[in-house]
Amino acid sequence: MTDPATSSTNTKPFLAAFASAIVPGVGQFIAGDSRKGRVLLIIDVAIVAVILFFFRDKVSLLTMWIRPSSLALMMVGNILLLAYRVWAADDAYRSASANNGATRTAASGSVILGAVLIGSVLLVPHMVFGYYDVVQYDLITSVFGGNTSASASVATTTAATTPSTDAEGNTVATDAATPTTEAPAGAFAGDDRLNILLIGGDFGQGRTGVRTDTMITVSIDPVTGETAMFSVPRNWTYSPLPEGMGIWDCDCYPELINELWVMGEQYPDAFPGPGTPSENAVKGVIGEFLGLDIDYYAMVNLDGFVDIVDALGGVNIYVPSTVIDEEYPHEDGSYERLQIDQGWQELDGHLALAYARTRNADSDYFRMNRQRCVIEAMIEEADPTALVLNFGKLADVMKNTMQTDIPIDALPQLIELLPGVDLDEVVSIRFIPPEYHLKYRDDGKPGRVANIDLVQEHVQFVIEDPERAVKELGLEQLEDVCGEPDA
User: Fold this and answer.
1) Would you state the pLDDT for residue 166?
2) From the centroid of its chain, how far is CA 431?
3) Residue 248, SS3 per DSSP
4) Residue 310: how many other CB atoms lie within 10 Å
5) What is the DSSP letter of 47?
6) C-alpha 304, offset from chain centre
7) In-domain check, residue 240
8) Among 129, 185, 109, residue whose Cα is nearest residue 404
9) What is the dihedral of CA 332, 336, 341, 347, to 10 degrees?
10) Low pLDDT (below 70) residues in the chain
11) Cα distances (Å, whole numbers) of residue 187 to 183, 222, 314, 446
12) Which of 122, 334, 414, 463 is 20 to 30 Å apart from 406, CA to CA?
């Protein structure tokens, strides 16, 4: 028969070790070493104070979470904290054993269970944190790691070309390019307007090359937080080119504006600059169209968008009128009948993409509104629990479907802007016909030409006085575009 006193003596070391595995120092009190317990509790308080200082608010937490150097330091801290907790648990066990006269006994079920429990308490939280830290580090360095805001000049090429045609009538560049240098854009200054071009690249099944069917420029005043979204439809033609770009007689880009990425690949000498020819083409032409300097771009493959939304747990969107598409092109290249009913709908990734992508039910211009609403829903309704549970999958999808030229050292500045941006007050403007239609193409091909002067005038109006622009131009704010109408 087991002696209760002996059982208590043998159990106490495990209890002390378990207590100090959770809170170093508590087990020392249980073991009877109150002096050491007080010292360890003071150390605990100091550790908590340091953690709270660095993670004192959401912005600080996010800033630490997107800096590779911070992620590396947090991993070191994670390992040191694990070592500290292991030492504290072991010390509490030894102290309790010595002070209570416990003797070594053969391993029993309760002893093994206690050891496993203590080991789990010690290891699991550090392993989980280490996993998220490594995944985040890999994501940040993979997507943003190739970008830098260094001000050193980058060698590029400027094409001294004239357009010519090959045997099939295709435009080609014939003259040799001459090297020159341009300084790449750096991380934005604190008082400069920040302009980021968001691109939805439609390069799924049955597509050759990348068509940038979604082009939304988000312009943020870092001082006031005032934000505007400028949406450019995919079907404008004869768009103006920045100085030094192009090989066309019209001194413009004559084809559909959503084909710029492909043109950058086909005619790299026509789009010199600090980035790839495709990046230079899209940023340069959209910037010239709007009269803005595009600082950075971020592009997501619309097919990968499905997995991103699913990893977020889906989105809730108000559908103002039923959307029906009898032949919607599925991501796998097949066709299906699509119906999304009017009212509040919870959409998974496939349906969210379909809602943003379909245009058979209305037109490209209505589709632009839906795209803005999907973006807002993703920002507002991301489920933190789903983010944590699906973080590995989400990171993997983003690595494979997202590309950007935003440099790593600009990320903390972007995070710091978030508290000042009110999504409901974002001014949204679409540069669509008939208001911005100047004329049709004069070469017999289908296509519209935009009134660039009017576009740029309204862009500046929105930037300089958004409240007045909303009233005088009859512009929309996201809450008006995407919210349920008042009864």
Assistant:
1) 42
2) 25
3) coil
4) 18
5) H
6) 13
7) yes
8) 185
9) -20
10) 1-10, 100-112, 145-191, 203-209, 303, 360-365, 381-387, 476-481, 483, 486-487
11) 12, 13, 33, 40
12) 463
For residue 48, what are its two tokens?
A: 């908590």
Distance from C-alpha of 126 to C-alpha of 194, rounded to nearest angstrom: 38
Q: How many residues does the chain have?
A: 487
Q: Are residues 380 and 408 in the same domain?
A: yes
CA dihedral defined by 384, 389, 393, 398, rounded to 10 degrees?
20
With beta carbons less than 8 A apart as the criterion, state whether 270 and 243 touch: no
Q: Strand 335-340 relative to strand 239-240: parallel, antiparallel, unpaired?
A: unpaired
Do 224 and 168 share a structural domain? Answer: yes
Q: Which two tokens stand for residue 243?
A: 């100085």
- Is 170 in the same domain as 314? yes
Predicted confidence at residue 69, as pLDDT, reads: 92
pLDDT (0 to 100) of residue 260: 93
The Cα 175–Cα 17 span in angstroms is: 77
Domain interval for residue 295: 161-487
Q: DSSP secondary-structure letter at 486?
A: P
Chain segment 218-248, per-residue pLDDT in tens: 999 988 889 999 999 888 999 999 999 999 9
> What is the structure's pLDDT at 59?
82
If one counts the domains in the chain, the total is 2
Cα dihedral 142/143/146/147 (nearest 10): -150
Residue type for position 460: Q
Q: Is 136 helix (H, G, I), strand (E, B) or coil?
A: helix
In a domain, 148, yes or no: no
Identify the DSSP state of 238.
S
DSSP result, 331-380? TTS-EEEEEE-SEEEEE-HHHHHHHHH--SSS-HHHHHHHHHHHHHHHHH
Rounded to whole angstroms, what are the CA distances from 322 to 173, 340, 341, 369? Answer: 48, 6, 4, 14
Closest CA to 246 of 232, 236, 260: 260
In this prediction the pTM is 0.75
Q: Which residues of 40-58 are buried (b: 16+ CB within 10 A; e: fewer)?
A: bbeebeeeeeeeeeeeeee
Q: What is the pLDDT of residues 420-477, one digit of tens each?
A: 888 778 898 989 889 999 999 988 888 899 999 999 999 999 999 999 999 998 886 6
Cis peptide bond N-terminal to 13, omega within 30: no
Q: Are residue 139 and residue 165 in the same domain, yes or no?
A: no
pLDDT of residue 412: 87
Residue 376 CA: distances (Å) to CA of 59, 68, 216, 320 = 20, 28, 13, 15
Please choose, from the candidates 376, 478, 391, the residue with its C-alpha nearest in 3D space to the C-alpha of residue 430: 478
Distance CA 53, CA 41 (A): 18
Q: How much is the pLDDT for 362?
A: 63
